[in-house]
Amino acid sequence: MQLFLLASLGGAIGAGARYLVNVVCTQCMAPGFPWATFVINITGSFLMGVVVMGLVPHLGGSLAWRTFLATGILGGFTTFSAFSLEAVDLMQRQQIVPFVVYVVGSVVLSLMALIAGVAVARAGFGGALR
Predict the structure, then answer these.
(1) CB 71 within 8 A of CB 85
(2) Is the pTM of this model over 0.70?
(3) DSSP secondary structure string, the chain?
(4) What span, in angstroms and rounded, lies between the C-alpha atoms of 99 and 86?
(5) Is residue 76 within 8 Å of 13, Cβ to Cβ?
(6) pLDDT tens for residues 17-54?
(7) Mean pLDDT lowest among 2-6, 25-29, 51-55, 103-107
(8) What ranges do the domains of the chain cover?
């Protein structure tokens, strides 16, 4: 239960940080490109590397810290950081086929799933969605 609460608290902090980055990017960057998501995914992936390879080991490798920081805060900020960490882990273990399947499959199947979800939502809600 403690790890669940740490992940939940961290997730709330990460989601709040994501919202703030979104607000800043919307005010400071040119419209027409998803700058906020772009910045969040890159920043979150960088921070995941720092947290998992630097900060958590420095804190004694604690599962509680990893859960709060990586799963919670960074998971709430962006799940792309977890995807990046897992992809690099496969690559570093020289598991090339699983790496390619994971990266290509995640991107392509996620896009296909979104398209399917939009189609279902449009059918269910009478085309009310954009």
Answers:
(1) no
(2) yes
(3) -HHHHHHHHHHHHHHHHHHHHHHHHHHHS-TTS-HHHHHHHHHHHHHHHHIIIIIHHHTTS-HHHHIIIIIIIIHHH-THHHHHHHHHHHHHTT-HHHHHHHHHHHHHHHHHHHHHHHHHHHHHTTT---
(4) 9
(5) yes
(6) 999 999 999 999 988 888 998 999 999 999 998 998 88
(7) 51-55
(8) 2-78
